[in-house]
Design the sequence.
């Protein structure tokens, strides 16, 4: 995948607002069967920890549905887990975010990426870069958690969406 970032054009917003995978509950989070777990969003990342699962990678922004959400950050403070911070404006997947996901996956886990801006589209970076068989779980406002099992179909659909997005300078 190219290191350049992408911006979501307005004509794709409705399409991206629909769940990309299977709606799941917290119990299902604990049934990874050894698959690598990547979480996107504060509530999902906290839910995984509450279910007794430590994600290989958590991407969060300290907010939930536009409101401050500091509970996951406090948990990371208590656990003294390392975090890296990356800028990612709303409606984009910055090159910095793509690089941070790649580096976190290469280094092993658990890793935590704190996004300054918005993490909503980080799910694309995760699906594109996670090994086949990985689980990417993200929050769907008003619906719950969505599981995407990274397989050829999910990766192909994500690449198609990625290629339709506008390239950032």
Sequence:
């Amino acid at each position: 995948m190219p290191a350049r970032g992408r911006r979501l054009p307005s004509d794709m917003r409705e399409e991206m607002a629909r769940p990309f995978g299977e709606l799941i509950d917290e119990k299902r989070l604990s049934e990874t069967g050894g698959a690598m777990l990547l979480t996107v969003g504060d509530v999902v990342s906290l839910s995984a920890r509450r279910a007794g699962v430590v994600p290989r990678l958590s991407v969060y922004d300290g907010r939930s549905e536009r409101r401050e959400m500091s509970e996951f950050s406090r948990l990371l403070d208590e656990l003294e887990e390392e975090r890296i911070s990356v800028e990612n404006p709303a409606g984009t997947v910055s090159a910095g975010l793509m690089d941070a996901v790649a580096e976190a996956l290469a280094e092993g886990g658990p890793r935590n990426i704190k996004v300054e801006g918005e993490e909503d589209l980080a799910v694309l970076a995760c699906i594109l870069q996670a090994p086949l068989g990985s689980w990417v779980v993200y929050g769907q406002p008003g619906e719950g958690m969505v599981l995407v099992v990274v397989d050829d179909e999910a990766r192909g659909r994500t690449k198609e969406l990625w290629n339709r997005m506008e390239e950032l300078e």
Notes: DSSP finds seven helices and twelve strands in the chain. The chain has a mean pLDDT of 87.
